[in-house]
Structure formats: C-alpha cells, structure tokens
Amino acid sequence: MGGNQNQNQKAYSAIPSDYKLLEEVGYGASATVYRAIYLPFNEVVAVKRLDLDRCNSNLDDIRREAQTMSLIDHPNVIRAYCSFVVDSNLWVVMPFMAEGSCLHLMKIAYQDGFEESAIGSILKETLKALDYLHRQGHIHRDVKAGNILLDTNGVVKLADFGVSACMFDTGDRQRSRNTFVGTPCWMAPEVLQPGSGYNSKADIWSFGITALELAHGHAPFSKYPPMKVLLMTIQNAPPGLDYDRDKKFSKSFKEMVAMCLVKDQTKRPTAEKLLKHSFFKHAKPPELSVKKLFADLPPLWNRVKALQLKDAAQLALKKMPSAEQEAISQSEYQRGVSAWNFDIEDLKAQASLVRDDDDMLETKEEDESMKSSVGFKAGTSFQFSLGKSNSIAELSQAESRGPTNQLQLYESLNKKGKALEGDSLDRNQENIALKKNGSSTEEMASTSEKDTMQTKAKAVKSRQTQSGPLMPGMVLSHSSSERARNPERCEIESQPPTEKSNREVRRAPSFSGPLMLPNRASANSLSAPIKSSAGYRDSMDDKSKANLVQIKGRFSVTSENLDLDIPLSTVPRRSQGSPLRKSASVGDWIFESKQVPTSPSSKDLNNCSVPASVLMPHLQNLFQQTSFQQDLIMNLLNSLQPAEVLDASQNGKLPPLPRSTENNGNVEPASSERERLLLIKISELQARMLNLTDELTAEKLKHVQLRQQLNSILDQEENGDRREVDA
Ligand SMILES: Nc1ncnc2c1ncn2[C@@H]1O[C@H](COP(=O)(O)OP(=O)(O)OP(=O)(O)O)[C@@H](O)[C@H]1O
Fold it and tell me: Does the C-beta of 160 come closer than 6 Å to ligand 1?
C-alpha cells in the first residue's frame, strides 16, 4: 500500500490532505465512494473509503489485495492508483467514472433495461475485462451491473475487484474458492453448492445473469429473499431470455446468454471463447452505443442523492403499526421463545420490505416464464429464511448435528450481526426510480420535501436494510470510527444530505448487494402477508421425476388426508372448507397425499445414505403441512369477523366479549386484549409453520445433495459398465 507509480504513470501520494473529497457518488456494503480532487495534479479522481472495522479481513489480506489491484493494467478494469490507511479506513484512489454504474443508470432512467446495441457494447467490454482477469488467474466473483462503471465517453470498466475480494478472502486462495461468495442472484450454482469448489466459469454464469439484468432492468429472481434465490438457482432450470417475452432481442443475444447460463460449469465457454460469439462480433463501439445513454442526465452525484432520498422515503412510508408490534413481542414473551432471536426493529424492517400482492402476481408470471423445474411452491416456502450463515455448508452441518445445534448456529449468527436481506427491495426501488423525462431527470421537488425525507430517513434508522457482501462479522451498529467519521474529510463542496442520514439511507438500497441472509425474525412478522398458495404452480422436470415414487397428477387435499397438528377447531367453521380446497387446487403436486408414507425419523434423514425415494415423500408431506398451515393462518386473519370472535369466546378460547347496548347486542370492535390474544394465536401458528418451513428447506438441501450423490454414483456405474463393455 501507499503511494504508487504504475509503469509510465503518474505517482499519487498517500497523503490524505492531498485529496479533496467532494460529493458522495456511490456506496456499497462497507465502502463509500467520493468524487475527489487530487490537489497536486488538480485531477478528478474517485476515492473509495473502506471501513476496516466492517471489513472481515486482516490488514495483510487487504494489503495483498490492494497490491493486486494496483498491478491490474487493462483498459476495462478499474485499477487503483494507490491506497493507504487513514484512521480505520482504507482509502483507495481510482479513476473517476463520471456516469457511475450501469445499475444506477438503469434505476434512474432505464428501469426496463437498455436496448440491445448498448447491452452488446457494455457486455463486450466487460467480457474483455473478464478475459484479462482470468488469464491473470483471478476470479472476479461479483460480476453484476452494479460493478460495471461507465464514464462520459462511454468507456466501460469492471470494478470492485481486489478490494472487495479482500472482504471475502480470510484464508488462502484455495479456501476462498470453497467459500460462499458473491451476490445471490448472480451466483453460479456451483458457488452455492457446499464444498464443490468453483473456478473462473463462475464469472461466466454471473456474466450471463448480468446480461439478463441489463436486458430487463433487474436480475432474475431479484424479487426473492436470498435464501430462496439460492435454492432456485440450484434447483430451477437456468433463467434465460424468453423467446416470446423478449421478442425485441436478437437470436444471437439469446443464444449467447443461454451459453453462459448452463448449470454444468464445464459446458460454459471461457471468456476468450465467448468473445468470439457472433453477438460480440457485431457489437458497436461503446462511444456510439453507450455514450448516448446518459446524454440528457444530470450529474452522477445528483442522481445518487435523488435515489437515496427516494429510498429513504420509501422505507419511511412502510411502518408497522405499533399495536401489531406490541402483540408480537407479547406473544414471544409469553411463549418464552428466544430461539428466533426476535428483534422488533428487524421485524418491522422485514415487514416493511414484504411485497404487496401485485408484486406477487408479477413474481408468479416470472416464475412461470422461468419454467421452474422442481416442485416447490415459489413464494411460500422460502419467504422465510433460515437466518444468517456463512454458507449453505454451515447450515447443513448444523442441521446434521441436530436441532439444538441449528439453534445455536442461528443464535450465534444472529448475534454476530443483524443484517437484513435486501433483494426484495429492488422491485420497490424500481417502482420509485426516477423516470427519464425529455431532457432531464426529475429530482425531489423542493428543499422542504427533501428535509421531510431526511427526517423520515432518521426515523427508520434501525429498520434499514443492509445489503452487502457475506461478512459474518458485519454488524448493523455503526463502528466507532463511523461514529466519529468525517474528520478526515477535507471539505464537501456541495453539501449532500447529512452524513448521518446518508448513512442510514445507504443501508437501505439493496440495488444489487451481495448476500446478507435475512434475520429469522422476519419470518414471524405478523404484518408480512402470508402468501396463500393460490396462483402458484409447481412442476417437475424430467430428471426430478425420475426420483419420484408415485406420480398421480393433481391431487385433492381434504381434511382427512392431512395430518395437521393444528386443531381444526381453531379455524372458524365458516371458513374451514375454502382454504382446504384452495390449497388443494392450486398446488400441482404430483403425489397423492394419502400415499405419502410416514416420515422417516430425523436420524434417518440426517444419514446421507437415505435414498431420495424415501426423502421425497417426506418433503412432500412437510410441504403440504406448511402450505396448509399458511392457508389456515391466512384464513384466520381474513375471517376475524365479530361473529367468529363471539363464537370463539363462547367456546372458552377467548375472554368473553363485552356487549354494548348501543349497538344492539352486536360485538363491539374487538378490544385490544382480545386482539392481542388472537394475534398471539396467529403468531404461534406462524411459528409452527416456520418450523415446518425450516425443516422443509433443510430437507430440500439434503435432497439436492443426495441427488447429486446419486447422480455421481450412477455416472460412476455407467462409466464402469462402459469400461467393462469396452474391455
Ligand atoms: N471509480 C468510481 N467512479 C465512480 N463511481 C464509482 C467508482 N467506484 C465505485 N463507484 C460507485 O460506488 C458504488 C459502490 O462502489 P463499490 O461497488 O466499489 O463498493 P462496495 O462496498 O465494494 O460495494 P458492494 O456492495 O458491491 O460490495 C458503485 O456501485 C458505483 O456506483
């Protein structure tokens, strides 16, 4: 580290006062990027200020990575001029890319993505960068639109190499290749598989996802919580450009994307080979196709500021009513539940991030277009996540050690940090992103409006979502250096929103942040809509069908073939029928529930030799119960009519209802006490449902692993047979 002189390049000093920090132009999980002036040359540069307190690596790792970054020499890769430590921050000085990232650009003006010619140019330049990095023996590991930077001339550079890698690399290279690194939506299936290891082909997958991101304005699965994204990536057919929906794109673009998004990494092309694809051969020079994208937009820092304010406003508007919050905490208190590590602020934050029904519908459309290949209900099972973990492997290990260990793992992970998932924010942010309007981008209307937003931003401080790389040690609370931040900041020319509000807002946008698994508390949020199973269809690909024991087509769930431990008497009579039928009719389950054998013991399940044919029925059973319980809860919520409340109280389940003479014996609006008790009941049901959901998730993971094992055994057998035949 320190001042640096690259071949035939100017030397930049390691003296902080030589840099005049101007506006904030970007922020990531642990870094803030400023436009700055390097005073000795009077040159505009970018200074990335990385908070070492929030970085998961030791100084040696950081030094090594910064060194690597400064040695990079390619026109399409951002390199560091120099880097040095100031207090507890690492400053990395880089060329300033005046148009920011492709992600910012899309959020501001191209919410539905760019046109093909611009995409072709951006991707080609990015691919050149990848080709260079791979030749040098590097894997970028975080290729995404948020890390593709543009400058005013249309120059495209891949960023976030090196320094961000340091955040992941706490061990040697080999070990780091077995870690769980990246941003879920962009992560290759092999990166998500425990212990499988990966190579530069993982970047090719992320490159393919980035192509889809640039084409649609968001990455596939970006609306889902990270845990669900992981499972979808592993289990579903790869996403791609749809031949019907994406008519505007050329065949060669579609082909190129399909080549990148092959699950078998050995079948993906190298960057070098991909560059020879016809799609790139015909790509226009970026100064023709990219430059025009930002011709009419205001300066980068104003765009960033506007986005921050919008994000803050969006979050401030989504508040959980305090009565509900109170009910939840009461409920948890009464049950003595600590296993979930409840944090009301987190709960509220999660609740505020849950999408509304419209989004769910959109999700369904997307699901169907993606032709999911394994039968699980999108949007239900994995709305709730397992907690924060370093890796799937860690979770799996905990699972195999039994429930107590799982609990400990969750608790310890939750203690380590309270990071919340952020991908589900994307859609909302897209909705509020500024629209390109003629010659200018609409900004916040007035100063007073801005002030209001900032005040609101402060109000939602601890509810903000943090997106960022997978850093187990990262905590939401501000570091001491952060609290005492700014002394090193030389001067701010045009004063942006206060540092504090910026920091708060900064945690919110999860434009495309690397993986932060959500806190378990999210699952228990009462205000989170419990999605009915309605509308989701499940399908199984041929491969998974091969593992099935019984294929019976759609089945009908009736009360007699469900083994619920929820007493049906708790369900209002009036509505018992409908949820059952609803649940039955929408799930395209291909097992008949009556024929599902009794569940194997958890001991059996923990034994990896359990065949898939035994596991699958168990999974199906669990799934039925989960979705059924969701419906029941939904139904309870929807049907809390006064009549039922009265009925319930007469049955001794609730305290007697007060009668009012004023309303002719009708039930008064439910008293807070009664509401509270009902909410407690619902909350308990939810907790039970969560248990099942977690079990199901764990079983699914195991199933995936087992299937892989089975496949590899089959492959080995086949190879053996072939050798025998050959012999
Ligand atoms: N050299 C630069 N010039 C202009 N803007 C930049 C530059 N480097 C980064 N940015 C902006 O700052 C944002 C955050 O930077 P960066 O991705 O390096 O931070 P990070 O903490 O590593 O983020 P991540 O969450 O991806 O890990 C980028 O998305 C981009 O918009």
Answer: yes
